[in-house]
Write a structure and sequence with these properties.
The complex is a heterodimer.
Chain A (H helix, E strand, L loop, with lengths): L6 E6 L2 E6 L10 H16 L5 E6 L4 E3 L13 H10 L2 H6 L5 E5 L2 E3 L1 H7 L3 E5 L3 E3 L13 H9 L1 H10 L3 E2 H6 L5 E3 L4 H13 L3 H14 L4 H13 L1
Parallel strand pairs in A: 2-3, 3-5, 4-6, 5-7, 6-8, 7-10
Antiparallel strand pairs in A: 1-2, 8-9
Helix pairs in contact in A: 4-5, 5-6, 9-10
Chain B lengths: L4 E7 L2 E6 L10 H16 L5 E6 L20 H5 L5 E5 L2 E3 L1 H7 L3 E5 L3 E3 L13 H9 L1 H10 L3 E2 H7 L4 E3 L1 H16 L3 H14 L4 H15 L3 H11 L10
Parallel strand pairs in B: 2-3, 3-4, 4-6, 5-7, 6-9
Antiparallel strand pairs in B: 1-2, 7-8
The chains are: A alpha/beta, B alpha/beta.
Chain lengths: ~240, ~250
């Protein structure tokens, strides 16, 4: 599995590893990365041998420090940009993965970096991780889902604090806010993520996928409909 | 005729609303609600205001609702929730009943270490009627919201921080200065981005995730037509401070 320029895709047993791989650029997200993620996520989605996925960043300094602003003013008209956003809906594809995805976060986790991690199901961070959503300072808002995924994860009060001020928080505060699930020492980040993935990959995969589906689809439904969905999924 | 709500402008684009209701416990009445409604409508109409801070008068509680916790026909939270720009609550002393419900309609809540919070309606055989049954569970989750409403108990600033009812707890002397600092910073940011960000979060929570993502996308691409967005990106590339105009 190669041919990618901005990411690395590897399979090990029942686990798949996606590594954001522009370490010299703090793994910032660009159009090439969008296209490569779109492709690889499509393959993961269809791959019944993959039981769990780990998303991580290459290099010492960052999981992902945001989007590549050098591409920003080169975009065509807003209507063209809107069209391509939904032609290649990388975030929709990410959220639709049936397998659990674990984000292993270190260093800078800013803008698109937070947003990508919010498309994952479980977030583990190392002690050096720093989080922030700096978009409003640039005269824009997040565009990879943060205005939706962050409030659904940590509630509207904490989400608005991060989104409207653009302030940076460290791993401890992120844990307290429930933005992440665990904080571990940096040298243990990947092993911790991997052992969690191995544990999940050891369960009955129908059950694992049903839980993910019941939770994520259920949050969009009135409680009664969510309970019916749970019942349907448990019988299949 | 503004005697229960004082309005000042500590910085360009920043409005500070100080509640000066009856007594030390800063009671709310129909007069305060009317002034608040008028002021909020004016702020939405006047695009010059980019951020709002709401606080209680010095030495008073933030706001403790109506006298004797009586049922009321007016709303404090409605006009504040309808504000398009970011709203910061700076809470010293007690925020209870309608006073807490007013704070729930704000976007960011700062509390002094001596702030206290409660919804004592149940003690009078009433239920919250200015938004708490809806906004509180959405903010702190169902379990904590139920506990506060069904027991009527008072919680401290630290407890409020832990459950996510407030964003930060500060020493009393630093409360207003911190709110002003955040407010000034927001007033200098791109006002349309702040408003659209708030809109995407609040409206998006009433939608399915997919619908919310489309709302975010549409607002994002609409911002691409603004001068502030071009200025923001250029300033970042040129490593200088952006000069936003709200256009």
């Amino acid at each position: 599995m190669s041919g990618y320029e901005t990411i690395i895709y590897e399979k090990k047993g029942k686990l798949a590893f996606i590594t954001l791989n522009r370490p010299q650029m703090l793994n910032i997200y660009n159009l090439r990365m969008r296209d490569e993620l779109y492709e690889v996520l499509g393959a993961v989605k269809e791959d019944s041998e993959v039981y769990a996925v780990i998303l991580k960043g290459a290099g010492e300094k960052a999981f992902c420090a945001g989007a590549d602003l050098s591409e920003f003013l080169s975009a065509p008209s807003p209507t063209d940009a809107r069209r391509s956003r939904w032609l290649r809906d990388v975030w929709g594809r990410f959220l639709s993965l049936p397998q659990p995805v674990i984000a292993a976060l270190h260093g800078y986790v800013l803008g698109s970096g937070i947003e990508m991690s919010m498309c994952c199901d479980i977030r583990i961070a190392s002690e050096d991780a720093q989080f922030g959503l700096p978009e409003v300072a640039l005269g824009i808002i997040p565009a990879a889902g943060a205005t939706q995924t962050v409030p659904r994860t940590i509630g509207p009060g904490r989400a608005l604090d991060l989104l409207l001020t653009g302030r940076r928080i460290n791993a401890r505060e992120a844990l307290q806010m429930k933005l992440i699930n665990r904080v571990v020492a940096k040298e243990r980040l990947l092993s911790e993520a991997e052992s969690l993935a191995v544990k999940i990959a050891g369960w009955d995969q129908c059950a694992v996928r049903a839980i993910k589906q019941a939770v994520s689809r259920g949050l969009d439904l009135p409680l009664e409909e969510g309970l019916k969905l749970e019942k349907r999924l448990s019988c299949s | 005729m503004k005697d229960k709500l004082e309005i000042t402008h500590p910085a360009k684009g920043l409005a500070l609303l100080t509640i000066n209701g009856t007594g030390k416990n800063n009671l709310a009445d129909a007069g305060l609600a009317e002034e608040l409604l008028q002021v909020c409508e004016d702020i939405n109409f006047d695009s010059g205001i980019r951020a709002v801070i709401i606080t209680g008068a010095a030495g008073k509680d933030f706001c403790t609702g109506t006298a004797g916790g009586k049922k009321s026909a007016f709303s404090l939270s409605g006009p504040v929730a309808a504000l398009n720009c970011p709203v910061i609550a700076a809470i010293d002393g007690e925020a209870s009943g309608m006073g807490l419900e007013l704070a729930l309609a704000c976007d960011i809540r700062l509390a002094s270490a001596r702030a206290r919070f409660s919804l004592p309606y149940i003690e009078k055989g009433l239920i919250p009627s200015d938004g708490a049954t809806q906004r509180l569970p959405r903010l702190v989750g169902r379990a904590k919201a139920m506990e506060l409403m069904l027991t009527g108990e008072t919680i401290s600033a630290q407890d409020a921080l832990q459950i996510g009812l407030v964003n930060r707890v500060l020493p009393q002397k630093e409360l207003l200065p911190s709110a002003l600092e955040i407010g000034r910073d927001m007033a200098g940011k791109a006002s349309l981005a702040l408003k659209y960000c708030k809109e995407a979060v609040i409206k998006g929570l009433d939608m399915t995730l997919d619908q919310g993502l489309h709302l975010e996308g549409d607002l994002y691409f609409l911002l691409h037509t603004t001068n502030d967005r071009t200025e923001g990106i250029n300033a970042f590339k040129e490593k200088r401070k952006p000069r936003f105009k709200g256009k």
